[in-house]
Design goal:
The complex is a heterodimer.
Chain A: H1 2-33, H2 40-57, H3 62-85, H4 93-115, E1 130-132, E2 135-137, H5 139-161, H6 163-173, H7 175-180, H8 185-210, H9 217-232, H10 237-254, H11 265-277
Antiparallel strand pairs in A: 1-2
Helix pairs in contact in A: 1-5, 1-8, 1-9, 1-10, 2-3, 2-4, 2-8, 2-9, 3-8, 5-6, 5-8, 6-8, 9-10, 9-11, 10-11
Chain B: E1 4-11, E2 20-27, E3 32-36, H1 43-51, E4 58-63, E5 66-67, H2 73-79, E6 81-84, H3 96-103, H4 111-121, H5 123-127, H6 138-150, E7 156-160, H7 168-183, E8 187-191, H8 195-201, E9 204-209, E10 212-218, H9 219-224, H10 226-232
Parallel strand pairs in B: 3-8, 3-9, 6-7, 7-8
Antiparallel strand pairs in B: 1-2, 1-4, 4-5, 9-10
Helix pairs in contact in B: 3-6
Classes of the chains: A mainly alpha, B alpha/beta.
Chain lengths: 288, 235
């Protein structure tokens, strides 16, 4: 029993670290543009397929394929935002959020059109699990988690030390004041979209490496991404990471007591519990 | 010639809503103008209109002789018009030194040196440079907001109720600071509830009533004027 518990915690932590990337992306976009962009699911799928094209078709190694996932997610996301969501934002967060649901359906079907419905596989070796006593850990999952942690560290460094990163935090803190200090809201919006939705692209590829690659890869984790973002605090960057670990570990632990089909319901349970005690999420809306 | 000349400004917050009904304001280079008047007269609205945060329905605003009423808040900041709002005038989750850096966003090359100068001038900012702005007291926050405005070497400083919510001692210190900035040659338009303190450091006073400039004159004369005293200065 203890072994099963520990195994679930380890699996949950690994899953949580992968989930943290799209959650971080979701919250980056929310922090700057103040609306929930549900197209993150479709963009995660696009990132996963871009990584697959780079890896399986062009023979790029995994790190380069992950870069391709970032570029594809970020570019597709920022362009789609400019074309479809930006015009909706003046109408309010709800209009933009609904628009993003529609955009998500378009993206998903664009992927279906281009790549078909059949699952695809990356051209990467399969390793046997490492065993530590009763606990088994997959090298692929560890590698995914390491990539996710590296990407997160890069994001924190960017937000902390670069001019555009600080400008993004300033806009998230107080958009009106930021504009009056000469920070261009349009440029910051582009930067937030490229960064945030690029992270969703990487997250999608890591999820696909962990599970399977098909047009619904991103959609399957959308609820978990949203739950992680809400649990951590909408618009909070460290909150997204904390929320992702809570949701990841919670989902895995739930499989010890209920059938795995109820796994995604755990995200909602986590929202219910956390928001009952901390209505603004674990870390509030503090962007950084 | 005026540095700033706003004439016949009509604007408000909603489509139907008009707060300013043709307000005028002129600020000469290096002049400190105190804008006083009853609550709801449109004092803060006038500053926001000049800063570019509200669209005018009618009227003109000229800066350096050029019409600016169609330019954005960012473009006006680039011209040297720097607005310090009454509330939400710092970035709460960013550190004091990051706030200063954002204040000087348009002049990044001089930022480091300016931060050093301002930290010397306002020692509290140097001591708290790594603290998040939300942890500052009200007085410290106003000092930070003022210092952020000084990061770019403003040509016209727009101060919206800088002493609001401050203890008397902190307010006195702040007025002394504003007076010093003025003596260094920066033109300032300042809205204040604390009319006597504002007139004490100002060159000129403007009384705004019901969205219009009701009267204007030298600050010291206005502070003595029995009618102004009766209406706005409490006796």
């Amino acid at each position: 029993m203890i072994a099963a518990f520990l195994q679930a915690v380890v699996n949950g932590a690994l899953a949580g670290s992968v989930l943290a990337l799209p959650a971080l992306g979701f919250n980056t976009v929310y922090a700057v543009l103040r609306f929930p962009n549900f197209a993150v699911a479709g963009l995660a799928t696009i990132g996963a397929y871009a990584g697959w094209v780079a890896n399986a078709l062009w023979g790029w190694p995994a790190p380069a394929a992950i870069l391709a996932a970032f570029v594809a997610g970020g570019a597709a996301g920022a362009l789609c935002d400019a074309a479809a969501l930006k015009p909706l934002r003046p109408l309010g967060a709800l209009a933009a959020a609904i628009g993003s649901v529609a955009l998500n359906i378009v993206l998903e079907n664009a992927v279906r059109f281009a790549f078909g419905n059949n699952p695809r596989g990356y051209d990467l070796p399969v390793f046997r699990d490492w065993r530590f006593g009763a606990i088994g850990i997959g090298p692929q999952e560890v590698e995914d988690a390491a990539i996710a942690l590296l990407a997160m560290a890069a994001v924190f460094l960017l937000l902390r030390t670069t001019r555009i990163g600080k400008a993004m935090r300033a806009v998230s803190d107080n958009a009106t004041l930021a504009e009056s200090k000469g920070i261009d809201p349009v440029r910051v919006a582009w930067a937030a979209n490229i960064l945030g939705l690029g992270l969703c692209g990487i997250g999608g590829m890591l999820v696909a490496l962990d599970t399977s690659l098909d047009p619904l890869t991103g959609f399957r984790v959308l609820l978990s991404i949203f739950a992680a973002a809400v649990v951590g605090g909408l618009g909070s960057i460290p909150g997204a990471v904390a929320g992702a670990f809570v949701v990841g570990i919670g989902e895995e632990l739930s499989t010890l007591v209920v059938a795995p089909t109820y796994r995604t319901a755990m995200g909602f349970l986590a929202i219910l519990i956390v928001l009952s005690f901390r209505p603004r999420g674990l870390l509030g809306e503090r962007a950084y | 010639m005026s540095l700033l000349a706003a004439a016949g400004v009509v604007c408000g917050y909603g489509a139907a809503d008009e707060i300013l009904h043709g307000a005028d304001l002129a600020v000469r280079p290096g002049e400190l103008v105190a804008i006083i008047g009853p609550n709801g007269a449109g004092k803060s609205t006038l500053l926001k209109a000049i800063a570019g945060m509200l669209r005018l329905k009618r009227g003109t605003i000229c800066f350096d002789g050029r019409p600016i009423e169609r330019t954005s808040a960012g473009e006006r900041a680039r011209m040297g018009i720097v607005f310090v709002p009454q509330e939400a005038n710092v970035f709460p989750t960013m550190t004091v030194s990051e706030n200063l850096e954002m204040g000087g966003f348009l002049e990044p090359r001089q930022a480091r040196q300016k931060i050093a100068v301002l930290s010397e001038r306002f020692p509290v900012l140097g001591e708290k440079r790594r603290a998040a702005a939300r942890t500052l007291s009200g007085g410290q926050r106003q000092v930070l907001a003022m210092a952020m405005a000084l990061m770019v070497g403003p040509r016209l400083l727009l101060l919206d109720e800088p002493s609001a919510g401050l203890a008397p001692l902190a307010a006195d210190k702040l007025f002394a600071t504003i007076g010093a900035i003025h003596r260094e040659g920066t033109a300032i338009a300042m809205v204040e509830q604390n009319a006597l303190s504002a007139l004490a450091i100002a060159d000129r006073g403007v009384v705004l009533v019901d969205g219009r400039a009701a009267r204007t004159g030298p600050a010291h004369a206005m502070a003595e004027d029995p009618e102004v005293r009766r209406l706005f200065l409490g006796g």
